[in-house]
Here is the input.
Amino acid sequence: MEALVASAVGVMTAAGIFLILRRRTFPVILGLSLLTYAVNVFLFATGRLALDAPAVLNKYKEVPYTDPLPQALVLTAIVISFGMTAVIVMIALSAYLSSKDDHIDMNANDSVDAPGEDA
Here is the structure.
C-alpha cells in the first residue's frame, strides 16, 4: 500500500513540475494544483495507512490507530490550496484580459545583464 501511495505522489509531483514549466498560464495553474495534491497525499500518508482504524486511542484495548494530526494538516492544506488557486486564477485572468494573450512573458529583452557586460 505504501509503495502505491509513494509512486502516486511521485507521478503527481513529476506531472506538476512538468506542467509548471509550460509557457501558458492554464497548464501552470494545473501543475500547481497537482503539486498541492501530491503534498496533501504525502501528508495524509504520514499518518499511517491503516484501514478501519480509529483516530482516537482506546486505553483499554491494544488496537492499531490512525494519527489525526496529518488529517487535520491535510484539511488545512486543502483550504489554503483552494484559496491560493483562486488567487492565481484571478491573476492569470487579469493578465489575459490586459494583454489578450495567455503566454507567460519570458522575453530576452527583459533579462538583466550579467555583471561585466556592456549594456
